[in-house]
Write a structure and sequence with these properties.
Strand order of the largest sheet: 1-2
Distance between the termini: 32 Å
Structural class: mainly alpha
Number of strands: 2
Shape: elongated
Number of helices: 3
Largest sheet: 2 strands, parallel
Order of helices and strands: EHHEH
Helix content: 25-40%
Radius of gyration: 15 Å
Length: 87
């Protein structure tokens, strides 16, 4: 399981140096929020259950859609991600 950013024990707080940087990070997550620890535990429980019994050799991304949004976020913030976008 590949977890994305999650809330810490005291709530969301600041992930990066400033609130603006944290807001920019959250804007790149499709669900627009950090994961709760219970959501990450649910993914682990799925993998350990009979429902995940035939999964092997793969990565289960539990990141709220951040990886799917990454090329767009890269182009928006750096101008370098345009090559990943379909024309």
């Amino acid at each position: 399981m590949v977890p994305g950013s999650r809330r810490g024990p005291g709530g969301a707080g600041i992930l990066y140096g400033t609130h603006a940087e944290t807001d920019a990070h959250l804007a790149n997550i499709a669900l627009g929020r950090l994961a709760r620890k219970e959501e990450l535990a649910d993914a682990c429980a799925f993998l350990l259950s009979d429902f995940g019994g035939y999964l092997t050799g793969t990565e289960l991304l539990v990141d709220g859609g951040r990886a799917a949004n990454w090329p767009l976020a890269l182009s928006r913030h750096t101008g370098r991600g345009r090559r990943f976008q379909r024309r």
